C-alpha cells in the first residue's frame, strides 16, 4: 500500500481492511501502467486492475494516474451516484488532513468557482436534453441519405447528378458524425443504455464506423486535450509536427517525413485528407481485437445498405469510387471543423492544470450563427463542450456567458473567432510549426 500510514479512516465503510492516509507525493508515485492510483474528492483509489475493465477504456482513466481526477470524474459521468458504486471496492484510503484538496499547486479558488458554476448549471436544467431537437436532426440526416438515391434512380447517373449525390451524401455523413457525437457523450437520454444503443446505430449503420473505437479515442482527447502522448488526436505518427514545442524537439531526428521549405503546405494538404486507409485499419483493428462483433455487425450494415443501393446504378467499381469520394469530401469537412478549435491552440506536454485552465488553453470558440451551429454540429461552442461534455449541444449558448465571466475573473483567455478566421488559423499554425522545425533542423 505504498508508504502511507496504516490508519483506519473514521466514517469509511468497513471493508475488512484498514484504510491508509496518504500524501500527494505518495499518490503521485503510483502512475505507471502496472501501478495506478488516483484521487477523487480526497479519496484515494487503486485503479490498477479496474482500468482494464473501465467502460471508457484503460487509457483515459490511466491518464489521471497519480493525479486528482475529481473534475474529470464529474465531467464524464452523468450519473455520479451510479459511477461511485464502482469506486467503493477500489478505495484504499484518503488524503492526509494536512494535504490540500488540489494537487500540484492548482488554484483552489478557481476550482471552487468552476464547481459552483457547474452546480448552478445543473440547477437550471441545462444538462436535460430536448428529444425533439435530436429527432428532427436524425430525420434530416435520413432525408439527406435517401434523397441522393432517389435523384440518381429517377434522373440517371450523369456527372452533374452524381456530383450532387456526392455532396448530399457527404452532408449526411458529416451531420451523422455530429449526431453520433451527441449520443457518444451520453448527452441525449437519461439512461446510458439508450445513448449507447442509438450511438451504435448512428455511427455504425449511418456511418460504418465503430462506437467502441470512437469512445476509446475521443474520451482520451477530452480528458487531456492537446497533450502529447495522451491526446490521440495530435498523435501524428512521427510524420507531422504540431504546435510550438514539438517542431523544435523533433528537429533532431530525420524520422519526420516533411523536410522541405514548403513543409507547411504538405502538412495542410495531408491533415484534412484524414488518411482513409489508416482510419479504416484502426477501426477494424479495434473491433477485431476486442471481439466486438456487435460493433462489427452495425458497421457492416452500413456497407450492405450502401452497396445494395448503388451497385445496381453504378456497378461495383463505380459505387466504390462514389463511396471514397464521399469519404474524401466528408473528411475535409470533419477535420477543418474539429481542428480549427484545437490546432491553433497550445499543444504541449502534460502541465497538470486544473480542468478549466486545461480546456481553455486547448480550445476556442467560433461565432454563433444558425449556419455555424448546423455546419459544426454546435462544436463552434467547443469551450463549453469541453467543460461540460455531457451537456446537450442546444444548451451551450445558454452557459457561454457565465463561462466567459468566470474566465475574465481569473484572467484566463476566452477566445472567439469567425469561421473563416478559424480556418485561416489552421494554415497559419501549420506554417508556423513547419518553419520552426525547419529552422531548428537547419541550425543543429
UniProtKB/TrEMBL annotation:
Among the record's GO biological process terms, what is one? unsaturated fatty acid biosynthetic process
Any one GO MF term held by the record is: acyl-CoA (8-3)-desaturase activity
Database matches in Gene3D superfamilies: Cytochrome b5-like heme/steroid binding domain
Q: List the membrane topology term(s).
A: Multi-pass membrane protein
Its EC number(s):
1.14.19.44
Which CDD domains would you find in this protein's record? Delta6-FADS-like (cd03506)
Give the main localization category. membrane
Q: Which UniProt keywords apply?
A: Fatty acid biosynthesis, Fatty acid metabolism, Lipid biosynthesis, Lipid metabolism, Membrane, Oxidoreductase, Transmembrane, Transmembrane helix
From what superkingdom does this record's organism come?
Answer: Eukaryota
Gene Ontology CC: one annotated term: membrane
Q: Which reaction does it catalyse?
A: (8Z,11Z,14Z,17Z)-eicosatetraenoyl-CoA + 2 Fe(II)-[cytochrome b5] + O2 + 2 H(+) = (5Z,8Z,11Z,14Z,17Z)-eicosapentaenoyl-CoA + 2 Fe(III)-[cytochrome b5] + 2 H2O
Q: In which pathway does it act?
A: Lipid metabolism; polyunsaturated fatty acid biosynthesis
TM stretches of this protein: 158-179, 263-283, 303-326
Q: Subcellular location, in the record's words?
A: Membrane
What EC class is this? oxidoreductase
- Record-given protein name: acyl-CoA (8-3)-desaturase
Q: Give the source species.
A: Astatotilapia calliptera (Eastern happy)
Amino acid at each position: 500500500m505504498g508508504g502511507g500510514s496504516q490508519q483506519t479512516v473514521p466514517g469509511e465503510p468497513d471493508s475488512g481492511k484498514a484504510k491508509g492516509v496518504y500524501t500527494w507525493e505518495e499518490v503521485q508515485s503510483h502512475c505507471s501502467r502496472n501501478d495506478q492510483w488516483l484521487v477523487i474528492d480526497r479519496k484515494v483509489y487503486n485503479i490498477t486492475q479496474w482500468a482494464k475493465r473501465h467502460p471508457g477504456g484503460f487509457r483515459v482513466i490511466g491518464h489521471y494516474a497519480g493525479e486528482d481526477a475529481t473534475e474529470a470524474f464529474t465531467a464524464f459521468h452523468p450519473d455520479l451516484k451510479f459511477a461511485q458504486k464502482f469506486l467503493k471496492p477500489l478505495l484504499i484510503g484518503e488524503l492526509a488532513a494536512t494535504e490540500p484538496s488540489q494537487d500540484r499547486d492548482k488554484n483552489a479558488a478557481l476550482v471552487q468557482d468552476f464547481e459552483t458554476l457547474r452546480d448552478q448549471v445543473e440547477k437550471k436544467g441545462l444538462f436535460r436534453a430536448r428529444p425533439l431537437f435530436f429527432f428532427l436532426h436524425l430525420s434530416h440526416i435520413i432525408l439527406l441519405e435517401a434523397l441522393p438515391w432517389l435523384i440518381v434512380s429517377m434522373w440517371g447517373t450523369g456527372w452533374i447528378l452524381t456530383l450532387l449525390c456526392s455532396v448530399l451524401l457527404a452532408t449526411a455523413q458529416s451531420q451523422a458524425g455530429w449526431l453520433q457525437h451527441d449520443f457518444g457523450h451520453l448527452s441525449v437520454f437519461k439512461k446510458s443504455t439508450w445513448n449507447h444503443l442509438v450511438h451504435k446505430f448512428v455511427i455504425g449503420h449511418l456511418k460504418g464506423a465503430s462506437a467502441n473505437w470512437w469512445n476509446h479515442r475521443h474520451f482520451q482527447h477530452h480528458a487531456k486535450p492537446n497533450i502529447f502522448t495522451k491526446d490521440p488526436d495530435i498523435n501524428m505518427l512521427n510524420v507531422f509536427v504540431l504546435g510550438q514545442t514539438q517542431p523544435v524537439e523533433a528537429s533532431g531526428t530525420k524520422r519526420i517525413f516533411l523536410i522541405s521549405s514548403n513543409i507547411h503546405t504538405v502538412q495542410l494538404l495531408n491533415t484534412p485528407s484524414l488518411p482513409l486507409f489508416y482510419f479504416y485499419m484502426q477501426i477494424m483493428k479495434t473491433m477485431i481485437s476486442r471481439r466486438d462483433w456487435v460493433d462489427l455487425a452495425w458497421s457492416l450494415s452500413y456497407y450492405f445498405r450502401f452497396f445494395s443501393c448503388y451497385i445496381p446504378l453504378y456497378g461495383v467499381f463505380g459505387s466504390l469510387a462514389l463511396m471514397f469520394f464521399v469519404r474524401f469530401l466528408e473528411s475535409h469537412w470533419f477535420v477543418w471543423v474539429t481542428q480549427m478549435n484545437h490546432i491553433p491552440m497550445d499543444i504541449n506536454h502534460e502541465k497538470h492544470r486544473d480542468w478549466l485552465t486545461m480546456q481553455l488553453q486547448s480550445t476556442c470558440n467560433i461565432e454563433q450563427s444558425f449556419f455555424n451551429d448546423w455546419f459544426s454540429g454546435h462544436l463552434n461552442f467547443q469551450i463549453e463542450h469541453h467543460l461540460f461534455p455531457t451537456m446537450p449541444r442546444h444548451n451551450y449558448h445558454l452557459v457561454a456567458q457565465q463561462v466567459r465571466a468566470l474566465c475574465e475573473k481569473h484572467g484566463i483567455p476566452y477566445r472567439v473567432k469567425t469561421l473563416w478566421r478559424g480556418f485561416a488559423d489552421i494554415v497559419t499554425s501549420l506554417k508556423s510549426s513547419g518553419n520552426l522545425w525547419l529552422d531548428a533542423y537547419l541550425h543543429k
